[in-house]
Design brief:
Length: 365
Amino acid sequence: MKKLLVFLFACVSPTLFSQQINTITIERWEANDWENNILQTYSYNSNDQIASILGEFWEGTQYENSSLTSYSNYMGNTVGETISQIWAGTDWDNSTRTVNQVNGDGLLSESELTSWFNNMWNNFVFREYTYDTNEHLVYLLQEFWENGAYVNNSQVNYTNNADGFPIQLIGDSWNSDNNTWENSYRTTNTYNSDNAILEFLNETWNGSQYVNSSRNLYTYDGNGYLIELLTQIWDETGNSWVNSSFLTYQNNSNGTINTIITQLWTQSNTWENSMRWTYSYNTLSTEENEWNQLRLFPVPANDNLYLSHTSKNYHYTVYSLQGETIRSGYLMPGNAINLEGIASGTYLVSLTSEGQESIKKIIKQ
């Protein structure tokens, strides 16, 4: 089960699809053209975990230091300490620090954010995470530092689907005058059969009920890669959704992001370019490329599942989305994984060879 949780974490980390992000170039739309704005450069430790992100601003003719975020003291795949610094012209000045703790299952349990002031770290925000017996996050408590102690600030209660994905979050704020929690917002997530999010709906509390505030609508291509994200704001006057921003994703053949273009909705009811993100990745070795090109087909599958782009032997394990082992065995080039007798649904397949592992999502008809 822990192995699958690590995989899900990796999907949103700077190591995407076995490929590490090298740089992200952010440009802004000015005078009908893209102009340099921000450059982010990533570095990694010997365990291929992110070590730092250097942020630089474009200053007319070149990029100059702006921010530096350093990651250290990893506990498994959870960052133990994060320090953010701001460039002061000749040296880096501390800004904020986050220190994380994990529980016995390796899950994030506590997080403390401190700010740098008077040449020392000062308490600021403390967060505590609670999980159910399936290791799904169900509660988050946030406290602020006031008068020498942490006091309640906000809380979030999570309701998850059977696969552990949050379908509803209810956020409350602390009323220190009467020492009670008060409704603040509610978010509702809708997913497709692969648990890819389709809609994120945010509602705010108006004193008597939750009312529409904003929503995100997600679109995917035939490979399941995100290609569009539309954000809309609720117009109370017109009692309708109004466009706000639109993100277009262009992906590489292996699913990594190539570019993201952000457009904003104008008063003339047209989309106008705003920002563009361009990703570059570290070069993979020949062996890493083989891992990156592994494909299970067909998807969806009936009784047999085949592996492409390989000359190796692999040990495979088929897992349910709850982490239960369904079937395991060895797979040689040209052979197939027999899915006969497995119920229809979505599964994860772990492929291991020579100490490396790749996990693929499949659909059984």
